[in-house]
Design a protein that fits this description.
The complex is a heterodimer of chains A (213) and B (75).
Chain A: E1 8-12, H1 20-32, E2 36-38, H2 50-59, E3 63-67, H3 83-97, E4 106-111, E5 129-131, H4 136-147, H5 160-180, H6 191-204, E6 207-208
Parallel strand pairs in A: 1-2, 1-3, 3-4, 4-5
Helix pairs in contact in A: 1-4, 1-6, 2-3, 4-5
Chain B: H1 19-29, E1 34-38, H2 47-50, E2 53-55, H3 61-69
Antiparallel strand pairs in B: 1-2
Classes of the chains: A alpha/beta (213), B alpha+beta (75).
């Protein structure tokens, strides 16, 4: 798969360990649907200012998955994290003011519940927010249903249940694969290591494309 | 007595794990069997095709890559 503007999906979500199962499930779903997930974690470069990195990746992605579900207050600071709404705003701004190919940008916004956002980010009221209920399987289903509308005419993707099944098989072998490859255990893998293993698994376990009976 | 010093050698480029090497790893974990998942099976109808089909004779690496990249069948 060759990375391009059209098939790149910016994943805007929390990076903490509690969210990690959802993050990895979303990245897997994007790959399995034939897209290329991008994240601020993909390159570790201390010389690049973080917001500039985010802006660069947003500029390179036509599509995005924004998860604004992390509204809890930090235990110590008692303040919420605003990075996800900020990056959603940058994406919407790029679409509105970027011109050219940026006008074709499209995104899905995820939250735990469908209408909860109206209480804390009401400016996006009226938009179709999707709920994942903190379930990786539901997140995969939502991401698949979003991406299928951006595959081009005549393209059929497997259903969400099939991708969930494939993700489950991938996870079952992941710990062994990490050990065999001298990598840290799955919960300590970097985004780059994880996506390399996903790509290798997908190439080893491809979806057959046509069923004619 | 002179103390022996141990140094950790950096990985040679050929020791680095590539996606191709990881593919071999996945195959090894799967017992050398490549699984082909059949897409497009509807629930109820064609249930047999929804079950992963296992092929002992692995297709070539080029075919696997081509199949992965070419999800949409030509009209």
């Amino acid at each position: 798969m060759v990375k391009s503007y059209d098939n790149s999906v910016f994943i805007n979500c929390p990076f903490d360990s509690a969210y990690r199962p959802l993050f990895e499930a979303i990245a897997f779903a994007a790959y399995d649907c034939g897209f290329y997930p991008r994240s601020a974690l993909e390159v570790d470069d201390s010389s690049e200012v973080r917001i500039e990195k985010v802006i660069r990746i947003i500029a390179e992605c036509r599509l995005a998955v924004h998860d604004i579900s992390r509204t809890q207050l930090d235990r110590e600071s008692r303040l919420p994290r605003f990075n996800m709404p900020l990056e959603l705003g940058i994406f919407i701004g790029a679409k509105a003011f970027g011109g050219g190919e940026h006008r074709r940008k499209a995104a899905i916004v995820l939250d735990t519940d469908r209408y909860r956002y109206q209480k804390y980010i009401s400016d996006i009221a009226g938009q179709d927010i999707r709920a994942h209920g903190r379930s990786p399987a539901k997140a995969i289903q939502q991401v698949r249903d979003f991406l299928v509308t951006h595959c081009g005419e005549g393209v059929l993707l497997p259903g969400g249940a099939k991708i969930v099944e494939r993700y489950s098989v991938f996870r079952q072998g992941l710990a062994t694969m990490c050990a065999e490859s001298h990598l840290p255990p799955p919960h300590d893998l970097t985004f780059r290591d994880m996506t390399s293993l996903v790509v290798a698994w997908l190439r080893t376990n491809p979806l057959a494309t046509a069923v004619t009976r | 007595m002179k103390k022996k010093m141990r140094t950790i050698q950096p990985a040679h480029e050929s020791d680095r794990i590539t996606v191709e090497a990881a593919m071999e790893g996945w195959l090894k974990i799967q017992g050398g069997e490549r699984t082909w998942y059949v897409a497009g099976a509807r629930s109820g109808a064609g249930k047999a095709s929804a079950t992963p089909r296992v092929e002992k004779a692995a297709p070539t690496r080029a075919k696997v890559a081509a199949d992965h990249d070419k999800r949409s069948p030509e009209p």
